[in-house]
Amino acid sequence: MSKRTVFTTVTPLPTGISRETVMSTLHDHLEMVDLNPLVQERHPIQPPETATAEEYHCQWYSLTDKVAYLPGGLMSGKVSYNACFHDLENGLQTHCYAPMGLVIKGKWTLGGSLPGEPVGPVELGLGVPLQGLWLREDVDMKCNIMMTGFVKKTLKKAHQALVARILVRTQIVSGSKLNQALTDSPRHSQSPSEFGSLLSVNNSKLGFNPHLYGTQTLPSFKPEENSELYSKSLSSRNSSSSGHPAMVAQHARGSKGINSSIWSQCRTPDLVEPFELIEKSVNEPGPGLPSSRISKPESIISNE
């Protein structure tokens, strides 16, 4: 006397796994067979004479399982049977014909939605997640009523390990594809011409007008050639009159040869000479300052 048993298992898939990777694993029949911990041998065969018209065009295999009849492996044996595999658009369908009237119909379905995809309604009572991918297994088996409990327990344990191996394999494949994509993508490096074009764009965004300021570059300034100027600047910081405009003008001009050429190149005809403003502020005494302190420095007179 046979008994029919139906059960469903839904496993949520971790993030980062693509739908294509899972489907490629489900449609790889040999991979699915090898991931099953019960299968010991597999051989492709021709469809048997007892195959139905629909299953005749499926892919058939002769499989051999190692089954433990007692806990701890005290008693085990091998069972050979035929099975057919049929690919579906969103999964895989299998049909196993085992000895003693055991017939197992299995259906693997990939469902769910990825980020950015519309979320559809899910079936109630199965614990199906609302977001993310999930793998569903529907089992419809018929066997002897005395063996139903043992077969169901063995099948669930084996398929639990099978699903875990499928998840690990899909993660490895997804990581390998990501690494390959990063390796094949060309690394963008900026050439000097590109770098110069970026500078010109940034200057135009900041309001830099080359017609107003000119395109000449300042000459190089080497500290070792102007040690006298550095000594004056450092010594002026210790004096009480370092903040006076006259002293600022003296430090700004420095030696006659170098700084005069710098100002001549930076000067534009549309702008007021900076030293005219400084000399004007020097000639006008500030509040609280003696006239002797604001007299025009000798360095400015000599330079003129």
From TrEMBL:
InterPro entries: DUF7053 (IPR055481)
Region (Disordered): 217-253, 278-304
Residue ranges with Low complexity bias: 228-242
Chain coiled-coil ranges: none
Annotated DUF7053 domain residues: 2-170
PANTHER family on file: NACHT AND WD40 DOMAIN PROTEIN (PTHR38117:SF2)
Protein known as: DUF7053 domain-containing protein
Natural source organism: Hymenoscyphus albidus
